[in-house]
Amino acid sequence: MTTIESLLKSIANEHAAELCELGDTISEKNLKKGSVYQSLKLDGDNAYRAVRGAAISSGTVIQDDEDRGVVAVMLKGGIAKMAPVLLVTSIKGGEVDLGCYSKEGLIPQHSAEKALKAFLKAIN
After folding, report:
1. Under a CB-based contact definition with an 8 Å cutoff, are residues 73 and 58 in contact?
2. Which DSSP helix (H) or strand (E) runs through 39?
3. Which residues have a Cβ under 8 Å from the Cβ of 53 and sit 6 or more positions away?
4. Better-scored residue on pLDDT, 23 or 60
5. DSSP per position, 103-114
6. Which of 1, 85, 105, 117 would bridge with 77, disulfide CB 3.0–4.6 Å?
7. How much is the pTM?
8. How far is CA 8 from CA 69, 70, 105, 111, 119, in A?
9. Which of 25-34, 36-45, 97-106 has the lowest mean pLDDT?
10. Would you say 36 and 29 are in contact if contact means Cβ atoms under 8 Å apart?
11. Angle at CA 8, nearest 5°, toward 89 and 16?
């Protein structure tokens, strides 16, 4: 069983360059500093469709796997919506786990947290 933390790390490492990382992977320090997680419960029959629809309207979908219940989307956050934000969801029945990552600079903008809040509004 894959946790949302390991799923976020795996997909973030695949897209490290798009997330403004200097190396091929995201360091544990950056991942811990720039990640935020949340769980919610949705109507079981429509949970995947609701999350996928919100992802399509919010940003660029980079992974969409209904069999595994995984949707990953690249969003824009921060000042002037210039910071790339990765949001990963894991859907099992009506349980939705969300993980969001954005690299934090010297002045923390909390882009991942703000993008997650905006995404949750888009779902509802």
Report:
1. yes
2. strand 35-41
3. none
4. 60
5. ---SS---HHHH
6. 85
7. 0.93
8. 14, 10, 19, 16, 16
9. 36-45
10. no
11. 125
Check residue 44 and give its pLDDT: 67
pLDDT at 1: 46
DSSP summary character for residue 22: S
72 and 60 in contact (C-beta within 8 Å)? no
Q: State what percent of residues in the chain have pLDDT above 70.
A: 98
Q: Please enumerate in sequence order all residues whose Cβ is within 8 A of that of 83, keeping only pairs 6 or more positions apart, or say none.
A: 20, 76, 77, 102, 103, 109, 111
CA distance 113 to 83: 12
Q: Which two tokens stand for residue 49?
A: 């469709």
Q: Taking residues 57-79, what's their average pLDDT? A: 94
pLDDT of residue 4: 96
